[in-house]
Amino acid sequence: MFQERNSMQDVDDKFYERADAHIHLANDQVNPEIGRGKVSASFMYGMARYCSYVCATNCGSKEEFISEKNGAIEYFVDQFQKMLEENYDDYVEHYEKYMGKPK
Question: Which of 101, 96, 17, 2 is nearest to 51 (CA)?
Fold first, then answer.
């Protein structure tokens, strides 16, 4: 049921602006003691926490929330995989430009 209410096809005109704001916040957390890997782990944990909250707010009862668990997890894992593949491929295509390295 969760998939029916949300779809990557339904992105609004501020979608990428919000994503960039999250990325900038994550980058601001990187320092000599805390590297990108730890920031990435915290970022993913926060996203998982927020997604759980969104799912809970979309349910009218605890029972409905429980019954939606597998569908919600399947949806978020599927969407993350698609987004990761898309962005990974983009980095492969533009690696030198994004990483500031000559070809």
Answer: 2
